[in-house]
Amino acid sequence: MARKQRHERETVDDLAEAIRNRQAILFAGAGVSMTVGLPSWQTLIAHIAEELRIDKAYLAETDVNHLTLAEFYRLRKGSIGPLRSWMDRKWTLPEEVLKKSRVHALICELDFPIVYTTNFDRNLETAFALHGKPFVKIVNAKDIADIRDGVPQIVKYHGDFDDDESIVIAETDYLDRLSFESPLDIKFRSDALGKTILFVGYSLTDLNIRFLLHRLWKTWKGSGFEKDRPPSYVFMLRPNPVEEAVLRQWGLRVLTEPDCAPENALETFLEKLVRSVKATCAESGR
């Protein structure tokens, strides 16, 4: 047990060192937003079912997910616009709620130079503004021209509520992204190849993210320089030996807080990471 705890502490310290040297990227998923009470995908499914008058008992008996339902919604309505508007209202939090979010405050404090997020909401951007941190929001290719040295980037990898066309919510959108050839995909490959990546707030049943992790591993493996790849990390709410083995094969280290309730695990982990970054700064005299 002591050896395992020492190994975990050293792993967090390695990650903290990369963050301190501004050689780390954060990739934030829906779990970050859900820490402040945002609806889950199940809420979205229930809303679509109610609006389209789909029998919820039927949905309970099938494996239809939110992607397929959103595709059906677009076919029925002719546009995802009304659904996007509903989501925008439900997924946007008042500033006073975000001010109290310790998870968002810790993300700001860690000061990643680039934050990728698959969340459509504006809560990360609002948190940055509330904590006095300038940023550049990148949703599409033209936004890349706005990048400025020393200014953090928030890259909306699956789109943004301000641009209906950018949102990856329906099944066709999702499958199109699996080509991994959009401008944001190309940017991600460029950003990620030489940096450590920390994934937080994800369910690893998310096929798009799993495919992204696999493609990154394949890129390094095909380069002939796999041993020189910077370490990357996935934070999981619960230990899962099966997932850990698969992800380790792809060159990712799994981090958990096994003694912490899942609803508090991310905050606890980020607190520990901030302390480690501050400790490495003190040791280096910065």
From TrEMBL:
It holds the Pfam family SIR2_2. It comes from the Bacteria. This is Sir2 family NAD-dependent protein deacetylase. InterPro entries: DHS-like_NAD/FAD-binding_dom, Uncharacterised_Sir2-like. It comes from Microvirga thermotolerans. SUPFAM superfamilies: DHS-like NAD/FAD-binding domain.
